[in-house]
Specification:
CATH architecture of the largest domain: Orthogonal Bundle
Number of helices: 14
Number of domains: 3
Distance between the termini: 33 Å
Order of helices and strands: EHEHHHHHHEHHEHEHHEEEHEEEH
Helix content: 40-55%
CATH topology of the largest domain: Arc Repressor Mutant, subunit A
């Protein structure tokens, strides 16, 4: 077993020699470049990639010895316990150290965030504009789930060029810190020109480092849903997108398999207000018509049921049930 071996020069040649001698190897690292560059040369076709994420919500429940869906009908008491754990999961995330000891969450995750910036990015890529990199990471963290463009970041953060912004955002995605989502369009050119949305790999970073005065539960839930879609092997820019209808209504997630759009997902924490519910349903109906997809899902905090729309049915599902499917 070799951990963080990408920090050594020509390591892939040595690993290749060991492999040819019949030795089985597990190579681990915290940087996407471990697989994209080094293993894509001497080790092409000789490795299987396994991505490891922080704990999923079902794994958190398992840690707390809570079985879900053991009975056909969950009791209100048990549902309340599960929602309480989900509330903590939205705030603190799923890093094992935080699950074991929630009191260290803020300090641990803040220092981990800094360590990733300093060691996995600045030192590896020999970046001199350290302050600009920190400013960019803090901006994306404060505006997670929100749209942005390279030109906008250049202007707001005072970068010298758009190409520098593109490089820096790429660096932030390589150590699995931020993940970017593109807007769905029929033509690739349309996708590349449209604004992107950024998500953070674990919700705990938001509480530890962002400047929110109070939790934004809707955005926190959307971020959790995005990471869960990654666990379900949807790849951003390949078969996972967001979408805007012709009337500029946003759909949070467009899930595609091959050439077929298999599901449209909208995330809304609170739909108790009739106007909010109508807004979400209207957006799904319009997108369903434009994208020819009738598998429509609205993920909520605790509402379950089905809504009849124009020629379509929209499934309402509590977040904890969807996360545990």
């Amino acid at each position: 077993m070799l951990d963080e071996v990408q920090n050594l020069p020509d390591w892939e040649l040595w690993v290749n020699k060991l492999y040819r001698r019949g030795i089985n190897l597990v190579v681990t690292g915290s940087n996407a470049r471990l697989l994209s560059r080094e293993m894509g040369t001497s080790l092409t076709g000789r490795f299987i990639q396994i991505e490891v994420f922080p704990f999923s919500f079902p794994e958190v429940l398992r840690f707390h010895k809570i079985s879900i869906f053991a009975e056909k009908v969950e009791t209100p008491q048990k549902t309340g316990i599960i929602l309480s754990h989900l509330n903590n999961y939205l705030l603190n995330g799923g890093f094992p150290e935080v699950i074991l000891n929630p009191s260290v969450a803020r300090n641990y995750l803040s220092s981990l965030f800094d360590s990733i910036i300093l060691k996995d990015i600045m030192r590896r890529f020999r970046i001199r504009q350290s302050q600009q990199l920190f400013d960019l990471s803090n901006y994306l963290l404060a505006n997670y789930t929100g749209p942005w463009s390279f030109n906008q970041l250049k202007t707001d953060l005072g970068f010298n060029s758009v190409s520098t912004v593109q490089k820096f955002t790429g660096y932030l995605s390589e150590p699995y810190l931020f993940m970017n989502l593109t807007r769905y369009a029929v033509k690739l050119k349309g996708q590349q020109k449209s604004p992107k949305k950024s998500y953070i790999i674990d919700n705990g970073y938001i509480k530890a480092r962002s400047f929110e005065f109070s939790p934004n539960w809707g955005r926190l839930l959307e971020n959790v849903v995005f990471i869960e879609l990654l666990r379900r092997h949807f790849k951003p820019g390949l078969d996972l997108f967001y979408y805007r209808t012709r009337n500029d209504k946003e759909i949070d997630f467009v899930c595609r398999k091959g050439h077929t759009i298999v599901q449209l997902i909208q995330v809304c924490y609170d739909i108790s207000n009739s106007r909010t519910l109508k807004r979400e349903i209207t957006a799904l109906q319009e997108a369903s018509s434009e994208l020819a997809c009738k598998n429509l899902l609205l993920i909520t905090w605790d509402q379950e049921g089905e809504v009849e729309g124009k020629k379509v049915k929209i499934r309402l599902l509590p977040a904890f049930r969807w996360l545990c499917e």
